Amino acid sequence: MLSSQSIRVKLLWRLIIASAILIALFSTFLYGFIKKSLYEEIQDQLLKQARFIALTIPTYHAGERIENSYLKKTLNISVTIVPKPPFINNTTFQEYKKNNKKYLVLLYPYNFKEQTFLKIEKEITSLDNILQKLYKIIIFTTILAFGFIIFYASLLSNYLTQYITNLNKKLTSLNEHMLKPIKIKDLPEEFQPLAKALNRLINRIHTFVKYQKELFIGLAHELKTPLAVMKLKNEVTLLRKRSEEEYIETIKLNIKTINEMNKMIENILKIGRQEGDQFEPPVQLDLIQYLQEKSKNYQLLAKNEEKELIVDLQPKNYTTTIQPTLLNHIIQNLIQNAIKFTPTGGKILLKSYPTTKGIKIEVIDEGPGINENIDLFAPFKRDGKKGGVGLGLFLAKSAADAMGATITIQNRKDKKGAIASLFIPTQLACPLC
Among residues 89, 85, 95, which one has the least CA distance to residue 121? Predict the structure, then answer.
């Protein structure tokens, strides 16, 4: 589970800790490397001097000190012959301090028969002082670098989070009257997928608000007209005494109008149910197999209307992750419209075929075609003389928008009729995908 702690604070702390460890390791390594290099240089010099002394100076005995001005003044070393120390068989280096001075001691095998060693001492106080100063400089530089890292990490965390902050401000300022998409090209590559997802969400909200407004306006208009007609008919009927048949006729007309209003309210309730279906978890299914199973019912429906539904589905299989209820809303509406507008004895074709970016499903009818100058997907829009309240295509369009598909209707070019198309992209924008 993700922590609720600020990303900026977490990033800042991680940068500081990682940088502190890196600086500490680097400083320790650097100091150790310099110290080792200097000591190796002095030790190498002492070894050369020990070999030279062992080869050129006459034999001395244990306890004797080699007095040589060259050794003392020029090389700054003192040489003493000592008995072989216990547990030491080879060349050995030692360090010790005396009177605030530091010395490096080399024990070098001298006379094998007498079991004596050369004890060469060299004062390295100046070297030790240099190393102490160097250590202080490294510590100071480390502290300075650590402070710079904290400052830089703060700037970097601000830089990385400013885009999220800007997106937050952008979304906070949005309302139903100012639904403007986010400019993706102004964002870094890492934030562009998030911006695209937000733009899809903004587009869906914009479509939803637009359709809701049209729905409320259309609903008020559609309900107001039959109510006014009913009121007028009742008032005219009550102006004078009528026959029993006339009263019955008026009541029948009122019932018919009420039934039409009930049908309209039923469709409004479908919209509410469909909005709930948008939160249905998407499932993986074979789209071709799904359409084949559904087409059997649609073929029976067409046959009952003395029409023929022809099914041509390609490819043989097409697996996708989709919300089945929303898909059913769309396909059912398109086929029902095709059956309704196709004349008796006519044919309806349900076909599908793959494209480079997804799959397209088409429902082709032999009806009178559509008026391409009007928005058939707006609520309460009707074209032709067939009955209906004009909400079917609105519901289909809403379902397609909800799952990231595209629905279109256009006239056929070869003959009379319309082609209703549903394009399902490979990557659907289902809210729960």
Answer: 95
